[in-house]
Amino acid sequence: MSEFDRFIHDFLARHPEVEQERRRGWDIWWDQRVDLDELDKQRENALPVKPYVYD
């Protein structure tokens, strides 16, 4: 085990709130339900983007 691994392991053992906060952040940003029908509607209604914006 490297010095960094020991540090992280000891730090997380002394500060369990860090892991709780990490899990809460993960839930906020990644674990969301996706409505596939709504996503298809958004893609159909999107305007095409010109390849060169500065024309």
Question: Can you walk through the features of this model?
Answer:
The structure is a single chain. It is built from three helices and no strands. With 55 residues, the chain is an all-alpha fold. It has one domain. The longest helix has 14 residues. The radius of gyration is 22 Å and the shape is elongated. It starts with a helix and ends in a 10-residue tail after the last helix. This is DUF3460 family protein. InterPro entries: DUF3460. It holds the Pfam family DUF3460. It comes from Massilia aquatica.
For the biggest sheet, the summary is: none
Low-pLDDT stretches are none
* Domains (count): 1
Distance between the termini: 56 Å
Q: What integer is the average pLDDT?
A: 89
- The proportion of residues forming helix, as a percent range, comes to 55-70%
Total beta strand runs = 0
Report the sheet-strand fraction: under 5%
What is the helix/strand order? HHH
Shape: elongated
Give Rg in angstroms. 22 Å
By secondary-structure content and strand pairing, the structural class works out as mainly alpha
**Tally of individual helices:** 3
